[in-house]
Amino acid sequence: MVALAVFMTNLDLWIVNVAFDDLTHSFPGSSLAHVSWVLNAYAVTLGALLVVAGRAGDRYGHRRVFLVGTAVFTLASLACALAPTLDVLIGARVVQAAGAALQLPSSLALLVAGVEVGDRVRATRAWAAVGGIAAATGPVLGGLLVEASWRWVFLVNLPIGVLGVVAGRRVLPHPQAHPRTALPDPVAAVLAVLGIGSLVAGLLQGPAWGWTSAGTLTLFALALVSSAVVVRRCLTQPVPLVEPSLVRARGFARANAALFVFSIAFAIMLVSNALWCQQVWGYGPLLTGLAMVPGPALVPITTIASRRLVERVGPGALATVGSLLFGLGFVWRATVSSIEPNYLVDLLPAMVIGGIGVGLALGTLMAAGTTSLPTASAATGSALLNASRQVASGVGVAVLVTILTSWSPPSAPDAYRASWWVAAGLSLAAAVGAAFLHASHRSGQVAVREVHLARAR
To answer: TM segments (predicted)?
Structure first.
C-alpha cells in the first residue's frame, strides 16, 4: 500500500508534463506563464513543506499523517479534474502538493517499521525504485490519458488513493509517535513558500510586465525580504526550519548547491521536450510520451549499474561526469534540432546521453549530501535535499517559460535552442560544483565531528 501511494505521487510529477500543451489549449486566453503555475504551484509547495511534514509524522504518528496525506492528495486530485477554471486548478494543485508532502516522508518510515531489521535495506531500495518505475511509465501513461482529456491525468489518482486509505487503515503498522517532538518553525515555512513563489512569479511576469516595472520589482523585493527573514529565523528560532549545522557541513552544502543547479536544468529538459514534440513537431500526447521514455528508463538502470563505480572513483568524479553528459545532451539538441521531425537523429541521442547523465549524477549528489551528515541529521538532510529539488523544478519551469515568452513569436524554435544552451550552462555549473565534493570529503567529515561535539556540549 505504501509503495502504491508513493507511486501515485511520483507518477503525478511526470504525467502532468505531458499534459502541459493540452492545458494551454483547454483554457483559451491564458498565457504560457499562467498555465505554468500548474507545475510551479505543486513544486514550490511540496518543496517548502517536506521538512515540516516529516517532523509532523514523528510527532503525530507516521501512520496517521500518511493516511491524512493520501486522503488530501486524492481529494485534491478530484478537485483538479473537476476544475472549471485555471485558477481553481492551480489552487487544487497547492492542496495536492500539501497532501504529497504529508505522505512522502512518512511512507518510508512506515515501510521500515513494517519489515524485519534484516530486510530494511532491501525495502528502502525498493521504495527508492518506485520513483524510477514512475519515471519510466509516466510519459506513456500520461500520453494515453491526455489523448482522452487532461482531466484523466488527475482522475487516475482516485482509485489508487481510495484503495490506499481503505487498505492502509487495516494493514499499515503503528510506529510509536513522539508527541514531544517539536515542529520546525511554521512561520519560516510559510515565508519560504511566499519567497520562492514571488521569485518564480517575477521570472514569469518579467517579459510581460517589463523587467523594471513596479510589479516585477515588487515581486523580486518580496522574494528577497522573505528569504532574508527565513535566514534570520533559522539562526534565532529554537527549532528552525533549516538547522544551521547542516549548512556548516560543507559536503552537504556543496552537494545541495550542485543538486539545486542540476535540478533546474532537469526541469527545463522535461518541459521543453514535451512542448517541443507537441508544439513544434506536432506530435500527439501519446507519441510525445513514447518519445520521452528512453531517458527516464535509463536513469534507474544507470544508477544500479554504477553503484560499485562510485566506490572506486568517488561521488565527486561520478557526479561531475554525469552532469557533463547531461549538459552534452542539451548541446546536442541545441546544435542538431530541426523543426522537421527527426527523432532518431535529434531527440533520441539527447535522451540517451542525458538519461545516462542523470543516472550517474542525480542519485550520487543525493547520496553525497546525505552521507556527509551525522546519522542523527540524515533524515532531515534527505528531506532538505528533496525540498531543494522541488524548489529548483519550479525555478527551472519559470526560467524556461521566461525564455519562450521573451521570443517573438512565442515558443519559436530558436527560443527552445536558447533554453537548451542555458540548461547546458547550468549542467556545467553543476559539474563544477560536483568536482568540489571530492575535495570536501575529508573536510566534510571534520564538520560532522564538529556537529557531534557541539551537540555533546
So the answer is: 32-53, 65-84, 90-114, 126-146, 152-172, 184-204, 210-231, 252-276, 282-305, 317-335, 347-370, 391-408, 420-439
